[in-house]
Design brief:
With 256 residues, the chain is α/β, with parallel strands linked by helices. The protein has a single domain, classed as Phosphoenolpyruvate-binding domains (TIM Barrel, Alpha-Beta Barrel), CATH 3.20.20. It has an eight-stranded parallel barrel, surrounded by six helices. α2 crosses α4 and α5 packs across α6. The structure holds 3-methyl-2-oxobutanoic acid (KIV).
């Protein structure tokens, strides 16, 4: 990004068909949001990956809305130029009315858009949110909120392929301004990217998307106990923290 104007869902949507790819990262706190904003990352997602990489849950399914909201507020307090998107936690959008209540709570905490996992079956929730003026980033492909979801590539079997194409069409028609495509077959994701009018933002779904999103902790090597295979970390913050703590320990104990 080159200018200093606030990033909006319309801006994200307008990247479709341009050469400027959308770079999105997760952020769960004030300093990270400020740092990422300072370098010009245009989309900050307060993702439900918070559950795993910050709160120590084994997966994202047990995250409560009440646990997510303070993190949305912390990111919003950074007053980023970036668009602040917040995830709808698992089980909070089971009906369109629930989705609206969740969306309102997230916007009340400072989100400027919400992300909702699910394709065709979430069309009603997406319509309810967008109809109430809450912009929606959809999320199709691998859906970690589904209990028992295993981390594996989707879209290779014929029925999965048809399903993914139908999901992509459905979330676009329901009014989403963009769609995250997670762990999907790269060739199919490229085909979907070419066929949609809204941008696709890939994670582990190949290079031919309109943007890419990563979990911040994976990017900077801050969660060394698990790293998805497709991520190439750009730093080793776990190593930096261990080294600093070891030096402090040694200095304090007079062993430096
Ligand atoms: O919560 C999350 O981190 C996500 C990923 C797609 C980035 O949803």
């Amino acid at each position: 990004m080159t200018d200093s104007s606030k990033v909006t869902p319309e801006w994200v949507r307008s990247r479709k068909g341009t050469r400027e790819k959308i770079a999105a990262l997760t952020a769960y706190d004030y300093p990270t949001a400020r740092l990422l904003d300072e370098v010009g990352i245009p989309v900050l997602l307060v993702g439900d990956s918070l559950a795993m990489v910050v709160l120590g849950y084994p997966d994202t399914t047990s995250l409560q809305l009440s646990e997510l909201l303070p993190h949305v507020a912390a990111v919003a307090r950074a007053k980023p130029r970036a668009l602040v998107v917040a995830d709808c936690p698992a089980g909070t959008c089971l009906t369109p009315e629930d989705a609206l209540a969740t969306g309102k709570a997230l916007v009340g905490a400072g989100a400027e858009a919400v992300k909702l996992e699910g394709g065709l079956e979430e069309s009603g929730a997406i319509r309810r949110l967008t109809g109430a003026g809450i912009p929606v980033m959809a999320h199709i492909g691998l859906l970690p909120q589904r209990v028992g979801a295993r981390f594996r590539r989707v879209g290779r079997l014929p029925e999965e392929r048809e399903r993914l194409i139908a999901d992509a069409r459905a979330v676009e028609e329901a009014g989403s301004f963009s769609v995250v495509v997670e762990a999907a077959d790269a060739a199919l994701t490229a085909e979907i990217t070419r066929s949609l009018r809204i941008p696709t933002i890939g994670i582990g779904s190949g290079a031919e998307c309109d943007g890419q999103i990563l979990v911040f902790h994976d990017l900077v090597g801050l969660f060394p106990w698990f790293r998805p295979r497709f991520v190439e970390p750009k730093a080793d913050l776990a190593g930096t923290i261990r080294e600093a703590a070891q030096r402090f320990l040694a200095e304090t104990q007079g062993k430096a």
